[in-house]
Automatic annotation (TrEMBL):
Keywords: Oxidoreductase. It comes from Fervidicoccus fontis. One of its GO terms (molecular function) is oxidoreductase activity. InterPro entries: FAD-linked_oxidoreductase-like. This is Methylenetetrahydrofolate reductase (NAD(P)H). SUPFAM superfamilies: FAD-linked oxidoreductase.
Amino acid sequence: MRLLLEIQPSRNRDKLRRVLVRAGECFDEVFIPDSPMGYPKASTLSIASLAVELGLKATISIRVIDYSWTGLVNQIYGAKIVGVKGILFLRGDAPVRGSIVNDLTPEQALRLLKSDARLKDIEGGLTLSMRFPLDKILERVRENADFYVVLRKSREKVEQVASVTNSKLIGYAIVVIEENRDFVLSNFAHEDVVFINELKRHLEEWSPPLEALIISAPRAIEKTVEFVQRNSLCI
């Protein structure tokens, strides 16, 4: 199973560059989230540009509630210029300050990307939360995204989805190590959390039906890269 490393969008260029260089020793692709939890950070496109410059593939997310139709199209064309591999469209958490924009849903944003032949090199994706009823999950699968990021994984539901789609299914997991344990368990206990010593088993258990896994390691990214590299999990 392929591993993608989530890069937290720091506003410190030197720190970002150091983390990306370190990531490049083990990973060939990174995932860059857009304003996690609604907090303003450096733009995903600026970080993706740095990642691509360093030889990494980059998939970004775009929070549709932050953009008007024009603003979102600008982001998509910017992604093409940067050389972004894929865009995950999601609604996102409410911004900590400012207004919510309701011009487009994630599904409409995906269709917009797919409708422009000039953007055919960019993969479009949606999230797929297994906490919803199966009929709602399959309704989103019918959007025929290039990939789906699967949240709140349920073996039964994921296997049912895999049986009816050719789209790539990518998991998401937050890695827990000693340094970030309290932070992760107090803020993300409801998410898919994996203790680092169980990461290899987690990969084996979910391959198939998942093709890849995004691993997030808030406050512990460099030690997580070191662990993945030391245990030969780089694929």
